[in-house]
Amino acid sequence: MRSKANIAKQKVDMSGKPAVDVVVKEVRDMQRFSHIHWRAPTIMGASYLCGFIVIGVHHGFYLLMNGEPASSALLQSWVNRAGTALAFLARLCLAIGTSVAYDQWMWVDLHAKPHDMRSLDAMFSVLGNSFEFLHFRIWSRKPALAFIAAVTWLLPISAVFTPGTLSVQAVLQSNNESLRIGERAYTTNSDLYCGYGTDPDGNTTSYVELATGLFVPTMGTVLNNGVLPVQPSTTNLTYHLQFYAPAVTCNQSSDEDFQLAKGAILEYENSTSTKVFYMGWVPQPGWGPVVNGSFFASDDVQLGNTRLDLVSQDAARVFIYLNTTGYDSSGNPTPFSGTSSAQMITCALYNASYDASFEVNSTGTQQVTASTKFQNWMPALETVPGVAQTSLVSRQMNMQAVMDVFGMMLVGPITFGLDGSRSITSVYALQLNQQMYPAQVGEDQTTLTQRQLLRNEAMFQNITLSMLFGLVNGQPGEDSLTTPAVSQYFESQFVYEPRTLLIAYGVSVLFALVCILMGVHALLHNGASYTNSFSTIVRVTRDPALSRLIADEGDLQGAEPVPKHVRRVVLRLGRSAKVLPSNSPAWI
User: Can you tell me where the transmembrane regions are (predicted)?
Assistant: First the structure.
């Protein structure tokens, strides 16, 4: 019988080849890779991994700093230095790996074919001298090698973009806090709004007149055409307040009231040879079905002696008669659209709920807006049962004081004589603020009336808000309330843009990976690892012909420039040296 060894020798593999040949081939393959030293693949892999880790650290460091206060110049400078250092290290690690890959691929080219001395000079020195890329003819024949060299040189570009992905910016911060606000409450017994008297029996309070404390902020409100400044703040503040306060609603007057006023004003115009442009008044004795022109000629209307409606049994009112088309905002005659037709406005006092929004900036600017919901009409009363210390009595007196000062702003006439001369009496709002003037070029009377009634409502609301919360003579109200507020301020913070950093590093990592994979391929193809060190060059260039080529004493010094006869020599290195050279004397 045949021995097992003999049987084994006859076995063949799946492809039909004897098993012993397969073993020999595997041994030869292992021997072929025996010259691959661990250093080259280790450096390529470790440097790439190191670069990847440094990139992760860079990303993590910037994530850690994102949103942190940049509290000092010293902190900012050290953060910038750390980011620059990490970018440099990442680039350095990747460049080490690609430079080793370049060496391996260079020896693929050197083994493959002979090269002239000029090409060898460029190939060996390009990683240290970028001017070697100017020899386009050399690199056009070695695109793979040129690619690895170019990537190695261009990797530092990522270090230009990545440190800039962390910047210092002014970021708006918001904090919720409780804010104490000065207030002048309508339910507080105070002489800021009006003067009052108490009857001898002590059970009745009489309204006397509005107080100077209300007159001053009213004038300021009309001049500013807005709410007086509220309490200043070192930060930007936003808060909301809900409260009850007086408000007026202005609408076109009823036809009955308008016809009464129109007939009496026409009689007044005929008797004075004038044209009434504007007339503001409050109901008082003489106003009613029997009103005539003498009512509007009285000093009470002309001089505004009566500014509070103590006649109406429901809401206290102010009437405004307008015949303003045909005049510009300065009161001068001008062409107008439509037909000149007088109209009349009625503003009535109501108790309203306010929802006010305050935006106060640290720069001193502010924006105060409010929406109102009318609750019930409010009459003006000459006497109120109860003492002034009662909140209901105080509210009544103070609310009608605001209506009193509102009337002071609006009552009185503006008339034009037949010669075009203008006379304005007692109408403070129109004298103080030209924007309140009820005329505009090219607008009809209905449009002008609608605009004027909205402005009157806004003026009353501004007076209300100014008296409640504005600074009067630089001081807030003595009463105070607490409300939630949002404080906003700008803080210098580090702001990170990860997308830019990851894109810049991603491109670098991708191209470096391609180069390293090419280096690994070159290792396997060469079956050995190489460097471009002097000792490697010496070991592959020993040749008698080369010694004869540089036998001249001047050539032995190796100084620049390279002699022409040396530059033109074509060298065969490595495996290509085994190929028989041509008969040309320029081959070594």
Answer: 40-62, 82-102, 145-172, 502-524
